[in-house]
Write a structure and sequence with these properties.
single chain, 699 residues, 7-stranded mixed β-sheet, 24 helices, 22 strands, 17% strand, globular
Length: 699
């Protein structure tokens, strides 16, 4: 493995300065890292387009032309005109102009490759790559890889052409050293090519078929090891008998269940059975509960907590915000009324006076269920016997915070874990983010919940929208008006913001006519925010103007209108979450998406999809297809917890299924990977590349 582990600075053409740039920008430190840095697309350099056929709507183009003139302006701007038999076009340079001026002598013929654009009615290419078709025949290779880059790399001279040369140099040094990472039986069963062939042809494919074979191999390997890592964690946990056994249901559970004014949906009943089986089995439960807004997850959480109480343990419900914790507490107290189980609320706002008896109640066990925020994991909070931790909107908690909560279990035994999310997660994403958790889905809405009518309008319809809101207020209803930003932004002056929106709403709904408007956003103090939110929740305000701070946790059954301004700025999942804030009462509700004049075609498609369905899982699937899995706006996930170098959860879902099935089969046969034929798998897993700490290290 001599060359593979070498520092990249020793590769010909790199050196210390360029190596530092590549390390900082791409986290490539060794030649092995470089070879696993793959192109994200390929350009066919085999064809030459006549100049007369070049249009600005193509991604890249290659033309061959004779230089007819060159004009150097102030040594900063070089304009070069080239022509072929069909026409003439301009090549423009702002960097390296002196060298380029000397190279592009009139009368000489070159190949120019780049992105055409239209400027002042003429088509040009800015900073094209230049090759001589006579002296460099390899310039007309079939497929050229395009690698991810940054502005710093480009300005530092690490262009696409340079990256190709570095990969070629690395391959010539290291190809013979590349070791296979998958056992022969896996390669044969899935028709996969050897790793050295895949690495060579992912960078320099000899043809489209070789590229497809190489790509499939590398994608399968990435997805396979990801799933193998997750499933092995599940095997280790499920085989360990360190879970708290809770064989009973208990009187409190029955009292609560029998007092419900409605029947649970079939989906809720199914999920509770799954949770009961986990909690009574002797292994620690790690279960993800997915359910759309309003599907009844809180009721399932309460009954799960009562199972813990019925077995002599305590339960906590941890929420990401005080607003959501208070909302849960208010609802849960009502459910617990017939049970006699004591419930408490612990947040950062809990006063010292309130905190003392609360901490004593948790320590002596008289408090059976506690609802709260991060305050639940403070060192001063000690439980007599914490048996179940319910975590709402889990992706908002860090690993360290969760680990502190797990350590609060009785005598070192980890509490059972129920993770809840109202953000529908596409199946392929759930398999990756939560692949080592058992997953329950509430895919049925409670009876009587009316669909929310969603409509898309432009600015020209605002007066009509205001009239409609006034009609709703006259009927005794309330309305949300949500904005993407708090203040006006110079770079996005055309985007609606709370600051100006509040003034606009006050003019349309004046106080002298009896309208009351509250405002909530993230830069307000906690007290001010709570006062305004409470005014809306209690019905003292007709309209709540806010940012997405109300996305989670505000339950106002009387609110029948959700207006989302500059709706094109939001992701589908976030729009769906916001829409879920209405339609919670008995009256018909409406969601009005207001788009700005500058709305892209892709954004228009997202907004139209919102109007066509209320199915959160369908929306999430479409969102991932449109945006990619690392940019699902509204889920608070800025990216995946593992860097997928080549596979795509949205495009490679079938391959993910195949890879997971293969990994499951390997572990069914050899859970510890101790069989000699699996030694190569164990070696790869020990490198730690496929650990997902942010999501799967739940306990």
């Amino acid at each position: 493995m001599g060359e593979l582990k070498n520092d990249i600075q020793f590769l010909p053409g790199v050196g210390p300065k360029r190596a530092a740039l590549i390390k900082n920008e791409l986290e490539i430190h060794t030649l092995e890292d470089l070879l696993h840095f793959y192109p994200f697309r390929y350009i066919d350099r085999s064809s030459v387009t006549p100049i007369s056929q070049v249009t600005p709507d193509v991604a890249y183009v290659q033309v061959q032309g004779k230089v007819v003139s060159r004009n150097l302006v102030n040594m900063k701007h070089l304009s070069v005109y080239v022509e072929d038999e069909t026409g003439r076009m301009e090549m423009v340079f702002f960097k390296g102009v002196k060298w380029t001026f000397e190279k592009l002598e009139p009368g000489c013929v070159f190949l120019f490759f780049g992105k055409p654009q239209s400027y002042n009615g003429h088509i040009n290419i800015v900073h094209p790559e230049i090759d001589s078709p006579l002296s460099d025949p390899s310039a007309q290779g079939v497929l050229t890889g395009v690698y991810p880059s940054t502005e710093k790399l480009k300005s530092g001279g690490v262009t696409g052409k340079v990256m190709c040369k570095l990969q070629q140099a690395a391959l010539s040094l290291c190809l013979s050293e590349i070791r296979e990472t998958l056992p022969d039986y896996v390669l044969k069963a899935h028709g996969l090519c050897p790793l050295p062939f895949a690495i060579k042809n992912i960078h320099f494919p000899s043809d489209q078929k070789s590229l497809a074979i190489a790509s499939r191999r590398l994608k399968f390997e990435e997805l396979f090891f990801l799933q193998l890592s997750l499933l092995k964690q599940r095997y280790v946990r499920s085989s360990a008998e360190n879970g708290i056994r809770m064989p009973h249901v208990g009187a409190a559970f029955h009292a609560c269940y029998n007092a419900l004014p409605y029947s649970l949906t079939g989906a809720q009943q199914r999920v509770i059975k799954e949770i009961r089986a986990d909690m009574s089995g002797g292994s620690q439960m790690n279960r993800l509960l997915q359910g759309d807004v309003g599907s009844g997850k809180t009721m399932v959480a309460v009954l799960s907590c009562l199972i813990a109480v019925g077995n002599g343990y305590q339960a906590c419900i941890m929420a990401p915000t005080e607003v959501l914790a208070q909302q849960h507490y208010a609802n849960i107290k009502k459910y617990l009324a017939p049970t006699g189980v004591q419930c408490a609320l612990l947040t950062g706002s809990t006063t010292k006076k309130e905190r003392r008896p609360l901490l004593e109640g948790l320590a002596d066990g008289s408090i059976g269920i506690v609802v709260g925020t991060h305050a639940l994991i403070e060192d001063s909070v000690q439980y007599r016997a914490l048996g179940l931790a319910v975590i709402d909107e889990q992706h908002r908690f860090g690993v360290d915070q969760r680990a502190r909560l797990w350590a609060k279990g009785p005598a070192g035994a980890p509490p059972h874990i129920l993770v809840m999310t109202a953000t529908p997660i596409p199946r392929t994403l759930a398999m990756t983010l939560y692949g080592d958790l058992d997953v329950s889905v509430i895919d049925e809405m409670p009876p009587g919940r009316k669909p929310v009518q969603t409509m898309l309008i432009g600015h020209n319809r605002l007066p009509a929208m205001y009239r409609f809101i006034k009609e709703q207020i006259a009927l005794g209803r309330q309305a949300f008006v949500v904005y993407p930003m708090i203040f006006i932004n110079e770079k996005m002056e055309d985007i609606s913001n709370v600051e100006e929106g509040y003034e606009e709403i006050l003019k349309a709904f004046p106080l002298e006519e009896g309208y009351k408007v509250a405002i909530v956003h993230g830069q307000q103090t906690g007290d001010f925010k709570a006062f305004n939110m409470d005014a809306f929740v209690q019905g003292r305000a007709d309209i709540l103007v806010s940012t997405t701070v109300i996305e989670v946790g505000v339950d106002v059954p009387n609110a029948s209108v959700m207006v989302i301004r500059s709706a094109q700025r939001f992701g589908l999942s976030q729009l769906h979450q916001l829409r879920g804030r209405v339609g919670r009462g008995a009256e018909k509700s409406y969601c009005i998406l207001v788009k700005d004049p500058k709305t892209s075609r892709e954004a228009q498609q997202r907004l139209e999809l919102m109007c066509s369905t209320e199915d959160g899982f369908e929306i999430a699937e479409q969102d991932m297809k449109m945006r990619g899995p690392g940019d699902l706006e509204g889920t608070q996930q800025s990216g995946l917890p593992i860097n997928l170098r080549i596979a795509s959860l949205s495009r490679d879902s079938l391959l993910l299924e195949e890879a997971r099935h293969c990994a499951q089969g390997v572990l069914d046969d050899d859970p510890s990977l101790s069989n000699p034929r699996n030694s190569v798998l164990l070696r790869e897993l020990r490198k730690g590349k496929y650990d997902i700490e942010d999501y799967s290290t739940i306990s």
